Amino acid sequence: MTTLSPRDLLVELIKTLGEAETSYNPGSGTGGPLLMPTLYREGSYSELESRLDEMRDSAQWRLPWWHVTQRYLAGVVATVDVSFRRTRQGPHPNLPGRCELVLVEGILGNQLMKIRVYRWDSRVEEGLVRAGLDRLLATMYGGQTERIQLPLEFLYRALGKELPHEHQPRASHLPSPSLLTA
To answer: Does 171 fall in a domain?
Structure first.
């Protein structure tokens, strides 16, 4: 299986932190103790949060910390209409600045397409984001980047692949429909 570079793995880990923290944990039954979500435990999220806390609390690394967190954690998802250009691979949206593509919702006609983008603060400086990512790579697990783990579900999504059947959650591990609507 193709994998991600340590930097790309780290970026995906940061981007999925909120989702991993709020995902359903089948071990948290009604009336029982609340457990950390399964996806959080499967990834290196605890290590990531520790290193982010160190950066935030350090006068030297506070600025790169702000740029990393604003770039990957504090942005917003928005739906926008943009022009596009036709390529051999299909229509390619002309993205606004400070945005990355999340989803193509459809072609509106007349060279316009509706897309969903992740947009970050205009004050974010890519050089400081790179410095912050470099710091995280150097300090997470003492610089042993091969130890950085991303849950398989998120890894396959980042690679644009479908999660193999044997790794998909079993129906018994999903919350009951009544819990989802309550």
So the answer is: no
